[in-house]
# Entry
Amino acid sequence: MLTEHRKPVCLSLVSTDLPVLSVVDAAARLSQKDSNRFHLVLTAPSNKSSQEAIASGTALEAIAPTSPRTWWLEISPNRVIMTMQGNAQLNYRHIWKQGVSGSSRYWLPTESSPPNKPISLRNFTNILVLDGHPLPRNLRVEYELWAEKVQLGRYILNLEIQH
# Structure
């Protein structure tokens, strides 16, 4: 049962305890794999220049490169996998499951580490909610990011799909 829809979406990430905020508005392809499994692919437009981002006070945009970024999300009521690629500075993959420690991997191209060797972190998903039927309208994932025994912040990922 493969159906595909083109939908406007808003993908946001905010930290509840750090100055992190990122919002992407873009068109996405939403594919229905079966009754409660979906794939969503979106490509974000290029960011503002670093100077514009610094002037507007959005520090996260200031460190992000201007190349397009592509996200793949595999969505179900029990699990979300999000992969971001196509960015020369940062790639990552998160796996979230309600009430379970998942993995978060980041690939940073640096001269000090071998290429394609990820930084592996743990996440703990406090809340994973998928709303909407037959197509999802909203996904909310609240999670903590951990490196060993050090918490690296609490985050809320929100995906709104317009219908």
User: Anything to note?
Assistant: The mean pLDDT is 85. The domain at 3-161 is CATH 2.40.128.20 (Lipocalin). The helical segments are 50-56, 59-63.
